[in-house]
Design a protein that fits this description.
It is a single chain. The protein has 286 residues and is an alpha+beta fold. The chain has 5 helices and 14 strands. The N terminus is likely disordered.
């Protein structure tokens, strides 16, 4: 008959109670060690699984067409911005805004907010730039002809994105105050030119945009919670602004408020329209 398997531990112990107790202690410790190893492996797998989920979430946020809010540590500044966003129509309506068209300086811009596709018509350079601001892919027409030189095209696409960053900021800056990389702090209470009380917010940047060394002071009307004036400092350490301009003449565009066609402001933004549909060929060719 086949003999049962006997382990080394079982073969070497005797039959007395002391040996049996010792054997049971050894087996318990081995079992405890195996359980610890299994628990350690389970925890490791769980951690890796959660890290993967977090990574997917971060990627989804980065490539999402919706606004990503990065709350400042300044609770008073956050409260002012919250009231402002509500007064302008709410972040949900801004995210739902599909197409925005406007003029700035001598350029005409079309922006598909959902895809990042932008069309920039620049008559002074006889250029039309079609660029996706997320991927930097696109094409450029010069004097009505498609630019073929790859190095030149890449440079013009970079320039096109830089123009969009600048020109769109003059239009949608109030909606961008809690973007990642933006620092927002409450400075003081001050007065607007008409005597109305205003909350003053300071806006600086952490390596975002094309001019991260800039600084802005925003004057938010305490009564209607809208920005009414902005001061631009070319460098963070500057004590005097390079300009102090009105941010007024709010108008309903789609389901949100935007400030444009400002009196005594020649550069723009002007002729702003918000659309739910746009001819898709405007983002692919002349």
């Amino acid at each position: 008959m086949r003999q049962p398997y006997i382990s080394i531990d079982e073969a070497t112990i005797g039959n007395n109670n002391q040996d049996i107790n010792l054997y049971n202690q050894i087996r318990f410790k081995k079992k405890e060690k195996r359980n610890y190893f299994c628990l350690k492996e389970s925890i490791k797998k769980m951690i890796m699984k959660n890290i993967f989920k977090v990574a997917l979430l971060v990627i989804a946020i980065i490539f999402s067409g919706s606004s990503v809010l990065a709350q400042s540590n300044d609770k008073k500044a956050n409260a002012v911005v919250k009231q402002m966003v509500t007064a302008m129509g709410g972040m949900e309506n801004y995210d739902a805004t599909h197409f925005i068209q406007w003029d700035f300086v001598n350029r005409k811009l079309l922006w598909n907010k959902w895809t990042g596709d932008v069309r920039i018509e620049n008559p002074s350079a006889n250029q039309v730039t079609l660029v996706n601001i997320n991927t930097l892919k696109g094409k450029v027409y010069e004097n009505g002809a498609l630019v073929q030189d790859e190095t030149k095209v890449n440079g013009l696409l970079e320039k096109g994105k830089a123009l969009w960053i600048n020109d769109s900021y003059w239009l949608v800056m109030p909606w961008k105050l809690q973007d990642p990389g933006v620092n927002l702090t409450y400075v003081k209470t001050d007065q607007l030119p008409n005597g109305a009380a205003a909350d003053v917010l300071q806006l600086t940047f952490n390596a975002v945009g094309v001019t991260p060394e800039n600084k802005y002071w925003l004057y938010v009307d305490k009564e209607d919670h809208l920005i009414k004036q902005w001061a631009y400092y070319q460098n963070f350490k500057d004590s005097e602004p390079k300009f102090l301009k009105p941010w007024n003449n709010y108008q309903k565009a789609g389901n949100i408020l935007l400030s444009f066609d400002r009196p005594n402001e020649n550069v723009g933004p002007k002729n702003v329209t918000v659309n739910t549909k746009m001819d898709s060929s405007l983002f692919t060719g002349l």
